[in-house]
Design brief:
This protein is of the alpha+beta class. The chain has a single domain (2-154), classed as Bifunctional nuclease domain. The chain has helices at residues 38-49, 58-68, 105-115, 123-129, 137-154, and strands spanning 2-12, 17-24, 31-35, 71-82, 85-94, 97-103, 119-121. A seven-stranded mixed sheet has the order 3-2-1-7-4-5-6. The longest helix has 18 residues, at 137-154. It is globular.
Amino acid sequence: MIPVELVGGRGEIPANTPMMLLREQTGQHRLLPIYIRSVEAAAIHDAIDGTEPPRPLTHDLFIDVLDELGSTLEKVLITDCRDHTFFAELHLVTGEMTSVVSSRPSDAVALALRCEAPIFVDDDLLNVAGHLPPADDAAQAEDIIDEFKDFIDHVSPEDFATD
């Protein structure tokens, strides 16, 4: 397991598809881009900003349920990518018992940010799907974060409507 951190997200051109970007915390600082939906992008942004809605949204509700059950989110593990779909696990602890629950990576990251739980990527997955950062990594990361913030600042409920 390789520890990673969320460094941002953005709308990928030309379709403006939201994406989260995870970065290896040590070593080569490889990047792992994962396409996500707008709803999860907004949930991740809310977690980063510490926004608390008047009533719990899905991720907040999940955290409330964990608290009521005496459970904690120990860690998130991004495990695999099959047919361009990433998979993740929530590692939950309740007393002496540990449970593993399958999750979308975007939901897992949104929960990890709210719980301050560490995020890991499977070694083999990062070896296959990870990308070395460009030489101007710091500038590029800032650009990505700025694009993600711009996307979140301009997203509206109509963007989530389905026809």
